[in-house]
Structure formats: C-alpha cells, structure tokens
Amino acid sequence: MTLILCTLMAIAPESGATLWATAAEFANGLDVPQSATYHVWVWAKDDASAEVSLGSQKVAGGTPGNGKGQYAWRRIGEAPLETGHIAVTPGAGMAGIALSTDPAFDAATAARFRFVSDEPVAVRDARAEAARNTDTCVTFPHFESQAEWEAHAIQIHRRMLLGSGLMPLPERAPLNAKITEVARHDDYIVEKVSFEARPGFLVTGNIYRPVGEGPFPALLNPHGHWDKGRLEDGERGSVPARCITFARMGIVSFSYDMIGYNDSLQFKHGWGGPKEMLWGIHPFAFQLWSSVRGVDFLESLSYVDKNRIGCVGASGGGTQTFALYTVDSRIKIAAPVNMISCSMQGGCPCENAPLIRLDGVSNMDIGAMMAPRPLLMVAATGDWTVETPRVEFPAVRSVYALYGARDNVESEQFDYEHNFNLDSRQAVYRFMGKRFLNQPEKYAAFTEPAYQLEPFDALRVFSDGNLPAGLPSKDEIIAQTVESSRAKWEAILPADKTGCDNFLRKYGTVFEDVIDVFVPEANDLVVKRIKRGMDRHEGYVTERLVIGRKSVGDAVPAVFYRPDDAELRTSVVVVNDRGKAAMAEPSGGPGPLVRELLDKGRAVLVIDVFGQGEHNSPLAAAAPRDTGRFPDTFEPTDTGRRVQDVLTALAYCRSRRDTTGRTHLVGLGDAGVWCLFASAVDDKAVRIFVDANAFANESDEAWVEKHYIPCIRSVGDLSTAATFIAARGGALSIANTSDAFKTAGIERAFKAAENKELAINPAAAAPADIVAWIGGA
Questions:
Q1: pLDDT category of residue 777 using cuts at 50, 70 and 90
Q2: Which residues, in sequence order, are CB contacts of 721 under 8 Å at separation 6+?
Q3: Which end of the chain has fewer CB atoms at under 10 Å, N or C?
Q4: Can you give the three-state secondary structure of 555-603, one letter per residue?
Q5: Coil, helix or strand at residue 775
Q6: pLDDT in tens, 376-390
Q7: Residue 200 CB: number of other CB atoms within 10 A?
C-alpha cells in the first residue's frame, strides 16, 4: 500500500513561515525555509509536559493546568533556527508540531482547517481493516427473483470477461489445428492435438473419441494441478481414465494442458505481474481463452454435435470449468469437481483473475452461473468442499429454483481428501449418462471399466520436450496480445455523435466494473460532523466532517467551506494528492484556490481520499495493510478506492439541502487522474479541471507506479474516460500535461461527441485559471 501523508508546507518567506509535521513524519525531519526565531506549538496531552528537540535546540513547556488528559495544541516556547534541514526529536506521546515566525499564529485555530479530528486518530474505515482473500469464508446472498439474480449474474459475466481482457472478445484467428492419431481401439480412438488459441500460442492435448461418424456430444476436460497434468493417472485422479471412459460411453473428450504443463511450453505456470495485469493478461486469462477456443475446436470437428458440448474438471480444472460456462453459453452441461467452496477460492494465479470476486462474489456465485443448465457438484469431506451438502449446494440450488429448475443441479460428496478419484469419476459418468446421453436407466449403476493407458511419450504432442521452430516467444506473445487489445478497443471507440450514444449504452458501466466504484444514493450516505465541528469565520463557515457509505462502512475526512448565508450554492469538490491539508493556508484559513472559489460564491469540499491524511494516525507511520494473496481478485486497488471517495464526495455535495445540486470537480497533482475517472462515472459532474501532473499515460510502468488498476488499459483508460465525459456533455480542462501526458485520444473523444468544451494546457494552472474554468456555471 502506498501511504500519502500530510506534506510539510511553508508559505513564502516574505510573509513569514509556518511549518507542520505529524509524529508519523518526524523521522523525515524538517526543511526550514528561512533563518528566524520560530514559535513552537505542539500537539500533546494537556496534562503532561512537552518537549521537542529541533536540531540542536531543545524546547520544553510545562503542563497548562486543568488538563483532562486530552490532546490539544499549545505553545511551549521559541527556537532560533537556521535555513536548511533539521532533525526532529519529540518527547513521549507527542502527535505533531507547528512552527511559525508569526507571533500571532494560533495552531489550535489553524489546525481546524487541516484536521477533522481534535484527537490524533485515524478515521475508522472498514476498507482498511480487513481484506478478503482466497481463504475468507463467505455467505451466499439471497435473491428474491430471477431478475434480481440475473442483474448480479450479468456483472459477474462482464467482470469475468473484463478481468481476462476479453471485452470485446478477441478476433477468432484460424486455429491451424494439427491432429495426429495415437491409437485406434475397437471402441475408441486416441489422437494428439495442437491448435492456436491466439496467433502462435498453442493449446496442446489429446482427443479421445468414439469410433464412428457421429455426431457425438463432447466434453472439454481441463485438468487440475496434478503433477502430470492431463497425463495424471493415479489413485487420486486419472485424466486419461475419465476421457477413455467418456469415449466408450459415446462422448468425445478433449483433455488439454494448463499453461506450463506437459506440451504447453511457451509459458511457465504462474507467470505474469502488474504490468501485464493492466491489460488483463495473466494465466487465468490465457487459460480461459484457450478453453473458449477449445469449444471452437470441438465445433470444428465433423463428428461433434455442436449443440451438445460440456465441461468437466477437478480442482484447478474445476475453476476452469465454471469460468468457461460463465462466459460461454455453448457449454450445455458441467461438472466442476471439488472446487465450488464458501471457504477457499483457489490457490494459484491461474484461478484468480483480477476483478472476478469483487464485492463479495465467491465460487458459489460463479458456480451458480450455470443455471438453469444441468450441473453436478462433486465434493469431498477432506478438502474445502466439506460443507457442500449444507452450504454450497443449497446456495447454488436456490438460484436454480428461481428458474423452476431445482432438479437440474445435483451434488455428491465422498469421504476422501482432495481428488478426482474413481468414486468421484463414477458419479460424473452416471450424471452424464442421465443428463447428457438421456439414458438414466443404463447409467444408473455404471462403473468405470478397466482401461489401457497409452504410453506417455505417445500421448505427448512434443515428446522430445522441444517446441517447433518459428513459434513466437512468451514476450512476443504478450506484446502481440497487448497490441491486439489496444487495437480492438480503439476500434470500438466512437467516431461520431451517434457512435458516442451507442458506446455509452453498450459500455457505459465499464469503469464501475473495472475500478469497482459506484455513485452512492443520498440515502446510502452517512455523515458525521464532529463535536464543535462547525466554525464561523469572516464571511464563510467551515464544517469538519467524515463522509461514508452505510453499505460499505468507509470514511472520507472532509472540510466543507461555504459562504455564511442561506443562499443555495453550487459546490466544487477539490481533491489534492497531498490531502485536504494542502488546500489550507499553513498559517490558518482557506488556501488561495478555496478562497477564490468562496469569493465567487461557491461551496467547496476538500477531502482526504483513501490512504491520505487522516486515514493514517498522526502518531506513527502506518504499517502496510495485509491484503492477502491475489488482492486484485478480491479488493479494489488503492487507486480505485480513491476514485470511489471522489464519487462519494460529489454525491454528498448534491445531497446537502443548502446546495443547488450542481457540482464541479477539481483534481490537483496525481488526483487529476482520480478525478478524470470519477467524472467519467458520475455524469452529474458539470465542469471538471484536471491537473495531468505530467503523468506518462502511455507508459505501463507509470500506470503501475502511479495509478495501478488491473485491466484499465485494456478498456481504453483515459480515452474511454474522456469519451464518457464528452458524450454526456461535460466540460473538461486539462493542464500541466508537459510532454509526457498524451492527449490525442482525449481530443478525438471530444471531437467525436461534437463537444467543444475541452481545454488543454501543457503548463501548470494557477488558482485563478481554475476558477475561471469553473466560471459562473
């Protein structure tokens, strides 16, 4: 987690100097801007003496008397300091210091513009307290109607595609399949297969098929994390055994390698990192697309019945099974074995794509995506499916009941460790015989016959362990996939006003899904104004607030400024990457931008977004949050949460009874990008000013370092954001682009929407420029 602390600030030497620091910042020392005598204020308990060493100067003060053991600001003395960097050594229990050359400076008053709380505490934000991970036990939601479930299912479907870089779907390039016969028996044939899921990226495996012309039903058979992958043949599981048996039953069976197993040699298993994640490129994505292309491959075979294709897999193969039927309606029947769980969601990167389990979604939700198609849930007492009879199965069956198809889902549990052993396989055979072959009597007591395993070298596509010459390398495949992703999204970005309207209708929720944000309803907001949190000043009032959402339990510290009258005021939300304290004068009162907006009659809300300011205790540097394994799968990133806090602030301003409901938005420093995304989601943000902060928005490395959101680049990042703003009639000003921040996509979006309210300036903007853009609107 990147912590953004209150930055030390000083006003210009000619008007005196004031510096602030919290205990969390003491280790960094202080930069003294001018040689002078400084009045020393400390934030400490009022019933204890206080002392601090500033360089070689030690300043100490006794108790003020009548203390109640509460933290308070008080002046303890003076210190002559020279220009330059000095060390700060505080006494016990000190929360902060303020130094000023102004004898009239009052830190207790000035602090009320910087801190919401009078005590040195962090706000209580549920998002920082606990992070879901693959081992978090979850409860399945209750759905009262089919429509309610389908609204939920639609988002699961979208996020599965978006999280894997598959929206829109890539071009289905030629498979260039190669099939070689391995063995021919009286009742089945074995072949080895390779085809290209993407140009140059191979899927490798074996076909086990009945003898005859068909058409036969077909099953994909993804394997789990067995040592030998698709060639595993042991007591705990045998992939060849089940495929041979299916073929003898009259079902074509295709077993194929997970990435990095057996003949899948172009990538190692578990490859990838944040840079690739920006594009939705990771093991789960490649395996899911390989499975989709596996359906394409089966459909291409003349002996396969295209209307009867299913999927069966255990463990990691079970994850692939329910991921596939979530995105591909061609899967008509499925049996994910030992994987639909309330308490463990998969332990490998190939099972944990970004986005797919946000907002409490678990493998139960994803498992239920098969409804109302036939589904068998096989479980074991010795793994994470131990509770299936009383937890997961009733949960999934509740969704089937909404379709009047309660009997279309079945469950069996066996007393073993994690497996796809003989008993588990036989449960699947009997289910397929009844549901897929429509012969329940014949297969009611079916048992797996003895089978003959072909030699491993014969089943291997590349028995010598060497790939054919001329195939692209891993890096080349990733680069090709990035370019393909960029090209397919650019192709759907609109070129004219009609296209903008269509784009909004089809993709208007893409950032809600990818960033995991929403615009709160007024009644979902919870607002706490601290005790004695309203102050009247000359011509304006301030309120110190903590804003959050009831449904989430989050917290956004904020200071609200407005003219001191009863007139309805238009609001401006101002977000600074240094926090709300950066928008106040160090000596007290509103800073220049807030002051000029107040002078124009605007109400102004300044906030600390997630990780900033009072999200951290002033007493000590915050420890990194424990996000567990695969955080991108279960939780939004810090950048995503900051975008959400901007949306919450905008909604709050509109909810107030003393505002017009009209809101504008200003993002300074790195907050410019947060605000650009927020205004793409919130169509009621009227005029938007964005400081680009010279962000290199075409660099993957810069996105990872500054604004990491998985999959954001695969959906057009800022070009798409600008398209939403322009199409909805927003007015956007971008300053401080320098040469790094590229604006061609943004300019194209406004041109397509026939929206002329776009201003771009390579130089930084002064407060007067920002106020002029906001104007009298």
A1: low
A2: 511, 676, 677, 679, 680
A3: C
A4: CEEEEEEEECCCCCEEEEEEEECCCHHHHECCCCCECHHHHHHHHCCCE
A5: coil
A6: 999 999 999 999 999
A7: 16
